Structures are given as C-alpha cells and as structure tokens.
Amino acid sequence: MKFNQIKYKKPFYKIKKPLRDHLRQYSRLDVFPIAYEDLLHHSDILPITDDNGNSTLWNAVLFQPSDMEQIYHSLILLYEKLYADGAPTAYIKVGSVDFCTYGNSQPFRIKIVNEINDNHDYYYIKKADASRIYGLEIEHIFSPNKMNYLVHENTLIEEHVIGVPCDDFIKKHAKRKVENRLRLAKEFVKFNERCFTQLLGDMRAYNFVVEINQDFDNIQYRLRAMDFDQQTYEGRINMYLPQFYKDNISLVKLAQELLSNETADQYKQQERAALKKRYLSEKQRTKSILRRMKNDTLSTKENVTLLRKELSVYHKNEEFLSCRTMGEILILHLEIRLGIRIF
User: Fold this and answer.
1) What is d(CA 199, CA 193) in angstroms, rounded to the nearest whole number?
2) Where are the domains of the chain?
3) Cα dihedral 130, 135, 136, 138 sign
4) How far apart are CA 86 and CA 214, in angstroms?
C-alpha cells in the first residue's frame, strides 16, 4: 500500500466578503478584544514535555507582567463569547497560554480554570484562514458533530474538540486489544467515508480524536476531525481518505480483520444516507456556504486540475473536467455521492 505524504504547508487564503456575509448571516462573526497577532508579542516561550521528557510540540507562553492582566482579561472575555454568548462568568481565570509552532494554523491554546472546583476548559485562538472556515462549516453541516467557533477580522477562536488524539490512542493500545473492537472498526469505515465525501484532507492520526462513551454495558466510539486546514486543497483523491495514511494503518488492519467487504459497504451506505439527511435539514445553510465556496480560491491551479481529473475517472463523469474551482468540484462530488441536486 502506498501511503499519503504531505510535504509542504499550504498557504493561507484570505476570508473574502462573500464568506464574511455567510458568517454574519449564521452568527459566526463577532468583535474580539484581542487578536491573534497580539499574542505573538510574548516575552518568552518554554517547551512543554510529556511525563517521559518527550516534546509535545507545545510551548508555554510568557508575557510581560505589565501586559499580563489586560491580556488575561481579554482571554476571559473571548471564552465568555464562545461558551456563554458573552454573558459574564464568575470565578474563572486563565490557567495557561500555550503555543504550537507545528502545522498550518500555529494555534494558541487557552486553558480556563474554574476557581471554585478547579474544573477547566480549553479553547484555541488561530489565524483565520478561508480553507479552515469552509471546513468548519461543512463539518458543522454534514457530520454528527456541531462546531463552535467565532471569527473577527483575521482571528478565529474555536472550542476544544473533546477526545483522545488518535495517535495517542493507537500508542496506548499497541500491546493490548481495544475494547469493543468491532465498533471502532465500524466507526473508522464511516469516518473514512465522511472525510472523502466532504473532501476533508490530511486526516493523519494526530488530526482527529477518538471520543469514548459508555453505553450500558459496552464501550462506543466516535472519530472526530479536529483539523480543517486541508479542506478541498489537495489534488490527489487518496489525500481525502484516512485509510491511506501510514499513521492509521492499525485502524485499517482492524477494519480488514473484522469487517467483510459487504459489511464495510453497508456502513459506507449508512453514512452517506446520514450525510444526505443532514443536508436536507440544513439545505439553505449548505447552499449559502457552497455558493461562496464555488467562486473562491482555496487551492492551486495544479491541484484543481489534478483533483477534477482523478474524480472524473473515479466517478466516470466528465463534468468534473469543466470545474474551475475546488468549490465546484466539491458540489458535483456531493451531488453524485449523496444523490442530491444542490443547485
């Protein structure tokens, strides 16, 4: 099996007026007291390691004492906007501010602590990128997961996606069997299908999480994407299929071991049926975001040319060859996969 490799960071794409109009219509725009760029003016960063002394790719951020009170107050206001619609929340404080230099979005991770019981939440501050915004909106519409985020100018804030990062989950179970393995195999097949249908790329194990739930006397799983920078960017079909990433090989083997081709096809069909139902319940919102997307630039001309060619072969449909943008490709792909007519 030939595995996917992503060698270069993708460029950031500006959020243009049509997309901002959609965000305003669906209450995703707000006014922030602090911007992403403001947090870059820190005085120092210190590497954060795990219990074994290994790098976590995160760094603790230190600010000048004269700036810290105002910055932390602004971060609490952002938390209230994201989680409480701006309503004041008593007895909370900023526990930490961390920065990740790896990946496209280079996020700040904000830890908010309840001073009464030490319970805590996380949220993220990132540089706003059109690809990621489209990915968040498409995930919000088509997946079983609702995405909580807000945008102001060039700053994006996102709610933390709860779950165990899949790469950590795989390491933890490398030497012992996963409980309810069949359910996990089924969820991976459905997740693989959903990513392909949405054309969400780069789902390596550290870009999605395993959500674990107790259901009566059994363990249930849900796989959730937490990175959307590669929404309709790559040119190769396989980049949109998690099964072709080396990091996910243990999940692929699990599905191959436990599921026949007929059973896997049944789960794929079930997932497409669920995607279609979600579209029908959010038809106007879907049309709104895709109308903006089909006229936007979200990838290189080379990637657009390659993806429309590969999907034309995959679907045996030459209509793809006349698509000018990634948005047009996604619309036609969705229509064929889900048996719907969007425009």
Assistant:
1) 10
2) 17-159, 164-338
3) positive
4) 33
The position carrying tokens 């009464």 is 116
Q: Are 50 and 56 in contact (CB under 8 A)?
A: yes
DSSP string, 155-168: EEEEE---SEEHHH
pLDDT tens digits, 198-245 = 999 999 999 999 999 888 778 899 999 999 999 999 999 999 999 999
pLDDT tens for each residue of 167-199 = 999 999 988 888 899 999 999 999 999 999 999
| Contact criterion met (CB below 8 Å) for 252 and 9 | no
Distance in angstroms (rounded) separating the CA atoms of residues 15 and 60: 29
Judge contact between 157 and 78, C-beta under 8 A: yes
Q: With beta carbons less than 8 A apart as the criterion, state whether 310 and 236 touch.
A: yes
Output the six-digit token pair for 150: 């807000």
* pTM of the full structure: 0.94
108-114 vs 208-215, strand pairing mode? unpaired
